[in-house]
Amino acid sequence: MENKAIKLTEVVDALDNFFKIHELPKDPAMSRFVPMVYKKSTIPWTKIFETSFLKRFNGLMVKGFDNVRTVFTASFPHDEILEKFISQSNEGDLLFLHHPISLECGNPKGKLGAGFLPINAKLLQAIQKKKLSIYSCHAPLDYNKNISTNRAIVEALQATVESEFLPYGNGYAGLVAQIQAISTEDLIAKLKQIFQIPYVDFAGKFFKKITKVGIVAGGGDEIEYSQTCRKRGAQAYITGEIFSHYDSDWGKQNTTRLQEYANRVDMSMVGVSHAASEFLVMKTQIPKWFRKKFQLRSVPLSQNNWWV
């Protein structure tokens, strides 16, 4: 049985309204990083990406055929993700992304990351040729009060939100939540299972009883973030990155600062990888939204290796 087709404009309008895309003039992060990476490339990105996206750096990014039958979801547009999207999709299908550009964050047990990178030019051409669409939702997906990168983690932990922190865009990108008492060892095991990762990046101290956690999906490699959580009574801090494993002067310097801080902090700091921490919402909450709103089928596209 063929999937029901929904007009792309209808899907885009619904996403824009739900995430209040037009209420955020510019994405605080992507309005800087997208132009930065494409200035170093030969890709005519200002001609390929939609005018409205170039203004806000959120929303419909690449417009394809106006009938959507399947929505694919992912954290970053890495080559392996786009290759899966292109091979598994049909004309008009949509890729819903968190990041509009790739991000290599490094591996705590391997090589350092290259940072932000433009979308592969050949794959971008293939997407256009097949008349596929791409929609990116960055900051609004971090601070939405119903569906967000952070609230998906809260949901998976069966936790209860106590407070918000970290002002970001038109909301907050950090949450403090109460959880059922758990040890650091058991929390790590649970997070490995939730995010389907082989190992975590860990620093700080081990606790026998954790009842409150701080959560920042994505890049949580700032001392201030975990300090805020600790001041609010959290014994553990869960994020994508607890260190800055980037092959840059800033990355190395910030990691040194964070390691010095981690040696004295009275807290369990757990990194689950930037991409995995932001993929959970793409695997759980976002597909439910598309199914409830449009009865559209969703296909979450996971990375083979989250620590890239």
TrEMBL record:
GO molecular function, one term: metal ion binding
Keywords assigned by UniProt, alphabetized: Metal-binding
Pfam families xrefs: DUF34_NIF3 (PF01784)
Residues the record lists as binding a divalent metal cation: H98, H99, D142
Domain of life: Bacteria
Keyword Metal-binding in annotation: yes
GO cellular component terms, semicolon-separated: cytoplasm
InterPro entries: DUF34/NIF3, DUF34/NIF3_sf
Similarity comment text for this entry: Belongs to the GTP cyclohydrolase I type 2/NIF3 family.
Protein name in the entry: GTP cyclohydrolase 1 type 2 homolog
